[in-house]
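We close this part of the discussion by returning to an individual protein. The sequence in question and its structure tokens are set out directly beneath this paragraph:
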Amino acid sequence: MYHFRKKHLWQRCLAFLLALMLLPSLADAQELPTEPDSDLFRMYPAETRYFWNQLTDHEKQLFAILYTAIEEYQPNVRLPRNQFTVQEMDRVGFVLQEDCPELIQYKMCWYDYTPSNGKAGLFTPNYNYSADEGRWRWDVVRNKLNHLMEYVTPLEDDFERELFLYRSIIVSTEYDALQVEKQEADAVFVDGRSVCAGYAASMMLACRMAGIPCFSVSGYAYLDTDPALPRERTQENSHAWNAVQIGGNWYFADLTWDDPLPMEGQEISDYRREYMLYMNLNEAELSPSHEVDYAAYAGWTLPSFHSLEDSFISRKLPNSRVEGDWRDEMQAQLAGLRAMDNPRVVLIFPTVEERNAERSAATGQLRAWLREMGWQGSYSSATFFEYPILIFDLAGMRAPE
């Protein structure tokens, strides 16, 4: 009887020790949520989170842990033991940095790992603000977004919603190169001053609130679009803009370039403020001046950018793109001149050089055709130095009786 009890006690002790050894692993192995239990995370549809949707379920579990920690301004968080690899940490870190514009407080992070197995351990975020200041700034951002949504929701389609948000951000924001450290959405919605990354983050956040898929694109921009000149990828050329999905097609949209700075001694024309010429371009049209940093997206899938169906130019300036003889586009616009509320003829040439070379001939041809049609009065013309557009404003012309 004693031997049996001794043996039984030894087995119970062994079982208890094994349980203690396994307890952390069992706790770590429990099923973790793939989404944060957070109203902040649910503020816009999850399907609009472009890169988050490319994470595996296991990576989403890690994301949920870190997102919650950042939202709560935690100084650090110890990850479940031996659960997540360094590669998973890097991918989730990318999503937190590039795909969560609502985390205005999040700047960057550090984490340690075990070299022997490559498992991540302690996650330490770095914040832009204290918890009190960050929450105050977010309240301002959220209130302004809610106000925008009151105007956006009734609009007829996603293009018009995007255009309203696009213009609203541009009108309320001043580009300020001195704000290089303020690259989050709150720089736009709270301070009204930002750089390209702030424009892109605020557009991403506003579009997603309106149910429009959108993300920020990193790359380079070049003022001189001559293809014969070499391109240098420098810090000065680094740039950020947006990718937006409208009607099932993906487009590039650059709010910063549609909010240009005046040249010395000049003012931005009203035409330039009216025309959103860099809204919803395909890669072919954007590539003379912009270059995506595809190396930054290694391991991620980017959409294709081929359509121009819902570009600003296609929707608001039909028959303006010169694809052959500019006379064809000019005649097509003149045919509908009487129906225009604000009569103009707009020609967009392939290059600034072609525009400059054809400007005189186009002016003479328009004058001759208007005379034939019986229109009287005067008109003016305008161009933008950086964009191959030629505008003839016919507001001073009178149609024949």
DSSP finds twelve helices and 15 strands in the chain. Residues 1-29 have pLDDT under 50 and may be disordered. The radius of gyration is 28 Å. The first strand starts at residue 77 and ends at 78.
